[in-house]
Amino acid sequence: MFERKIxxxxxxxxxxxxxxxxxxxxxxxxxxxxIIRNTASNYFTNYIEIDLKSDYEGERLxxxxxxxxxxxxxxxxxxxxxxxxIEDTIIFLDEIQFYPxxxxxxxxxxxxxxxxxxxxxxxxxxxLKHTFIPMGSIDEINMYPMDFEEFLWANNVSKETxxxxxxxxxxxxxxxxxxxxxxxxxxxxxLICGGLPDAIIEYVTNRxxxxxxxxxxxxxxxxxxxxxxxxxxxxLKISKLYNLMISNMVNKVKRIVFKKIENKEDTDLAxxxxxxxxxxxxxxxxxxxxxxxxxxxxxxxxxxxxxxxYYNDVGILTSILYKNNIKAILDxxxxxxxxxxxxxxxxxELKAHGHDLYYFDSKKIGEVDFLINDYNNLSVLxxxxxxxxxxxxxxxxxxxxxxxxNYKMKYGYVFxxxxxxxxxxxxxxxxxxxxxxx
Length: 438
Known about the structure:
This protein has 438 residues and is of the alpha/beta class. Helix content is 41%, strand content 18%.
């Protein structure tokens, strides 16, 4: 079993009977069920797993369960020999989004405290927006594909090495060249296989690029198929928007051009709000919104009509772009522009670490790839991502950190492939993989 950062959160939950019921939210195929199953079954003598998706597609036994009494009766009829007390029994409600009535019931189940509960859902973000949730009843935990540090664990990179890298990041010191070459090589492997656990198994364990790409291709299809729960009009718009992302990724201007979705002029985000809501809340994309004024807090000047969408997994993107030809990523001299790939992986990393994503673009100043809130300094942190050999090819970010400017940013980061850790005019240049410590 791959080590996942969410494991610590789950174990803390298992050890605290008084905590709210945890509901793990995230896209399909990222390992939610696996990590819950393999931790909960070790902490409780009586472990019950209920696949609500299978039930919904079959007998629909849970469809009309509206009271705890009805729930207990059904559970006891199905799993009576595994039910005991709250101390040794946990019930895992997998794919709970199929039954919003059970989400509403969680507060009463928690209050009556007969057993412990944990739930997960792959479209839960969408369902929760349309479901009554009693206040204080659940803790929603977002889960993402494996981030780069988890990928390093899967490749047996030692905790000591990762701690060394972190110290270099904190102390702003250059990394030993031999270590840099190894980690950069693993970072490029990560661009190929991404963070889907099944893809990592095929790439890291079996070294089979064809099967790795099959996992990514199937997952991409799953994500498109998931929109079928909507009516025909919404389903078609979601599919068009999702398919349109790939062409936006390879364009210089990566934001969504709304008139291209259905080839209609005079249209904006308001017309596609439900579709954007779905793609973001379901976890299959990461969104970055433009800000008109890059000052803290960034949410105050967000422009909802200017948005960039990134695939939730960089492996899906490189699978679409390059199929089985991994030289496009591994060979730095082949002339392939990896800008969209590097932006996607950095969006993954920042999102997995809890950052809301923004960007800034103006004709006068230029564009900065990402902005995040710097809560420690009550400021904004600008981030520039460079995939090529030239890490000095930018014009906007120096203006944002300039002491003579209007934005009062303390410093900015420029991430690239080179093993450099230098500071120049409040810009910090460092290796791309160190973004895992932001």
